[in-house]
Amino acid sequence: MVDIGGGGLLDVGCYAVSLSRLIFESEPVRVFAAMELDPQFKTDRLATGILEFDKGIATFTCATQLFDFQRVNIMGDLGQVELKIPFNPPVDKPTHLSLDNTSGKREFELDICDQFTLQGDHFSKAILEHIPTSTPLKDAVNNMVVIDALFQSAHEGCWISGLT
């Protein structure tokens, strides 16, 4: 949207796009987005995206100027999963995951961790030991293709197809 970069989609929305692609194990067939721009910075302060895959649909909303809240809800025919604070969990308290299916609802407390430290350690190990990272560079490129299409959709006000 703007040449200076930034905004909700590039900040936290990129994780929602990446997770959607991971869950569906494919690239979206088409995308649609709506955005509200900050009047001063001209970056998206609120973005909503719809990603249509061959196997289903993923939706997300992200913002830079709203109450701090993160949830991932994965809903399917047999149940649902909810993950609290998935993208930047606090480094001093655990987060929670709930699973609700025909067997009932179960709650799990996830161990405290610093995801950024784990990511840095993994990357450093890959460099030092000359091994590939668990997420190849192509994945980041594919994520940006989807993000660019979402920006295009918001600008043009229409669905964007042919991402692959």
Task: Please tell me about this protein's structure.
- Helix content is 32%, strand content 32%.
- The protein has 164 residues and is of the alpha+beta class.
- It has a four-stranded antiparallel beta sheet. It has a four-stranded antiparallel beta sheet with strand order 4-5-6-7, with no helix packed on it.
- The radius of gyration is 17 Å and the shape is globular.
Structure classification:
alpha+beta
Number of domains: 1
The radius of gyration is 17 Å
Q: Could you name the ranges where pLDDT drops below 50 across 5 or more consecutive residues?
A: none
- What amount of the residues lies in strands? 25-35%
Rough shape? globular
Q: Report the count of strand segments.
A: 8
* Average pLDDT number: 92
The helix content, as a percent range, equals 25-40%
Task: Give the CA-CA distance, first to last residue.
Answer: 21 Å
CATH topology: Dihydrodipicolinate Reductase, domain 2
Provide a brief overview of the structure.
The protein has 164 residues and is an alpha+beta fold. It has three helices and eight strands.
Reconstruct the topology from this structure.
Elements: H1 8-24, E1 30-37, E2 44-53, E3 56-63, E4 71-75, E5 79-84, E6 95-101, E7 104-110, H2 115-129, H3 137-156, E8 160-161
Antiparallel strand pairs: 1-2, 1-8, 2-3, 4-5, 5-6, 6-7
List keywords for this structure.
single chain, about 160 residues, alpha+beta, Dihydrodipicolinate Reductase, domain 2, 4-stranded antiparallel sheet, 8 strands, about 30% strand
